[in-house]
Amino acid sequence: MKIRKFKPKDARKASYLIQSTMKKTFKECYPKKTVEFMASQRSPKKILELTKVRDLYVMQEEECIIGIVGLKGNEIKNLFVNARYHRKGIGRKLMRKMIDLAKKRKIKKVIVHSSPVAMDFYKNMGFKKIRKVNAKTEGHPFHYILMERKI
Ligand SMILES: CC(C)(COP(=O)(O)OP(=O)(O)OC[C@H]1O[C@@H](n2cnc3c(N)ncnc32)[C@H](O)[C@@H]1OP(=O)(O)O)[C@@H](O)C(=O)NCCC(=O)NCCS
């Protein structure tokens, strides 16, 4: 198992990882249509577009991509771990990688827009809740918890 930089050839597997994890885990906190819309925004093509404006890293296990995370400015984004591998320390390793990257860039504080289901994970990683934010993505309602961590 290793963390490495995202390569364009990972786009299809990364898209599958994000879409399937969203569908499994977000259904308990967001309306079905919102989850479907969010998943549609993570097609291979859209992921390739994301790489122009953020750094993406993946956790590779043999030929599979089992985790992904990104850093855009001081915001940690796109953290997803394949549900079969939850609670095995993979999210923690991906998060550490982003904290190290942020440190190298002299960033003093990182933020996340946490899904309700990931809040306890982020708390465990040293993040503090700032506030709950009600948002809409192209008309689809959802909410997230803005959290921050000094580094
Ligand atoms: C959030 C997520 C990335 C965590 O990944 P993970 O690999 O399972 O996390 P780890 O195993 O590294 O967890 C580290 C610690 O965080 C805490 N934690 C992780 N998931 C938790 C959960 N569902 N409930 C409570 N605590 C949790 C635990 O304390 C855990 O340590 P422990 O297992 O030794 O008790 C993963 O659950 C996920 O992909 N969720 C769906 C997508 C998502 O919501 N992503 C965030 C978008 S903002």
Explain briefly what this protein structure is.
With about 150 residues, the chain is an alpha+beta fold.
Question: How would you describe this protein?
Answer:
With 151 residues, this protein is α+β, with helices and mostly antiparallel strands. The protein has a single domain (2-150), classed as 3-Layer(aba) Sandwich (Aminopeptidase), CATH 3.40.630.30. The chain has five helices and seven strands. It has helices spanning 11-25, 32-40, 44-50, 90-104, 119-124, and strands at 2-5, 55-61, 64-72, 75-81, 109-114, 128-137, 140-150. The strands form two sheets. It has a four-stranded antiparallel beta sheet, with helices on both faces. Strand 2 (55-61) and strand 3 (64-72) form a beta hairpin. The longest helix is centred in the N-terminal third of the chain and has 15 residues, at 11-25. It starts with a strand and ends with a strand.
Short descriptors:
151 residues; alpha+beta; Aminopeptidase; 4-stranded antiparallel beta sheet; 3-stranded antiparallel beta sheet; globular; binds coenzyme A
